[in-house]
């Protein structure tokens, strides 16, 4: 498992917007990834976090979790987002953290089985941003993984 610092360097090199947005990897495991970003770099005219920034960091958290797991378990692969939905439940008024968690074990194993058998698979991933211990955004993205090696 890569350290948070190594993952952060990978994101900055390969997804440069992550650096511009001030994204930091604050927690990384095979089951969960948390990415934090500052309000100052992502603020809108209402002095809250810009909705596009929330969506971008949530997408990146899910993508990174999938990347970590596929890098550890399988042949080289490419990951792309194919669809996403976000519910903006409440405004985010401070630095924020998007946390993505691995889907339940049965769904994850089915994804890996399909990926291994066909060289491609899709899976839904979720992420949340909390504000004052309440959900501020609820994000779901569908990601496709393709074997490249």
3D structure, described in words:
This protein is of the alpha+beta class and 149 residues long. It has one domain (4-147): Thiol Ester Dehydrase, Chain A (Roll), CATH 3.10.129.10. 35% of the residues lie in helices and 37% in strands. The protein contains four helices and six strands; from the N terminus they run ααββαββαββ. The chain has helices spanning 4-14, 17-20, 51-73, 105-118, and strands at 24-28, 32-37, 77-88, 96-101, 120-131, 134-147. A six-stranded antiparallel β-sheet has the order 1-2-4-5-6-3. A hairpin with a 2-residue loop joins strand 5 and strand 6. The relative contact order is 0.19. The model has no long low-confidence stretch (mean pLDDT 94).
Task: Give a nutshell description of this structure.
The chain is α+β, with helices and mostly antiparallel strands and 149 residues long. It has 4 helices and 6 strands, in the order ααββαββαββ.
